[in-house]
Amino acid sequence: xxxxxxxxxxxxxxxxxxxxxxxxxxxxxxxxxxxxxxxxxxxxxxxxxxxxxxxxxxxxxxxxxxxxxxxxxxxxxxxxxxxxxxxxxxxxxxxxxxxxxxxxxxxxxxxxxxxxxxxxxxxxxxxxxxxxxxxxxxxxxxxxxxxxxxxxxxxxxxxxxxxxxxxxxxxxxxxxxxxxxxxxxxxxxxxxxxxxxxxxxxxxxxxxxxxxxxxxxxxxxxxxxxxxxxxxxxxxxxxxxxxxxxxxxxxxxxxxxxxxx
Amino acid sequence: xxxxxxxxxxxxxxxxxxxxxxxxxxxxxxxxxxxxxxxxxxxxxxxxxxxxxxxxxxxxxxxxxx
Lengths: 261, 66
Known about the structure:
By secondary structure, chain A is α/β, with parallel strands linked by helices. Chain A contains 9 helices and 12 strands.
């Protein structure tokens, strides 16, 4: 078990609820993932055919922790308003704060995100900030009162994996005492395993599972990868070496000769 | 009265506050939240929050998200 945002969790997998083939596939995928935290959003009343009440009731029946997002917000004001509305609808102080700064790659606006975080934390929110791997951005969010950081691996929905592993390793070591969750850009289970092997506390993903040919099997695959990566990190990874080192001891090797031929 | 609801211009009559507006729209409103001109309106303040000509109202419901 580990603690995050005032809650006890056993899983390190945070899964999104969007873009599944059906609500039932979504439910099966969440169950297969073992995730205890799911991300959700808000949309205009009456838009589309989605049954909002059935959706919310399903999540409540599954006893999941709900992490609403402010997806689609480009200003501090909109993000804060959506966060307040989400708190009322979902009955949680948790908010995945997204203040988008660039349409092209959905990159977060660091200035807007920090400003919105300050406002929301003063109002009692537990802010989970969607952010890049920029260390100064992270410092400012911690100064604002954030207790968790969520750097992206790559742009949302890109499936590119850890675009800048060096930056993420640096991020992890710089903020080793802060819960850090990789959010966005993961496409394969191996990406999740790599993030966990770096020592990240969890991963949050959606599209890689929901758009898989078999979302339920992919959710399970990611869950296994996350667990494997985390256990590998805990076990202590061997240091990399430049050259080969025989794993079988040389002493006593038959036909072995000291001198070069 | 002309209002903009969810980005759509609408002609709504006989409403003075958010509570009446929400009721007039019908449907299941158990899990909604409202913003008036970009400002969140807590559920407990629907009665006392007046709506006026050209006000912009957003009503949101739960939706899947990543």
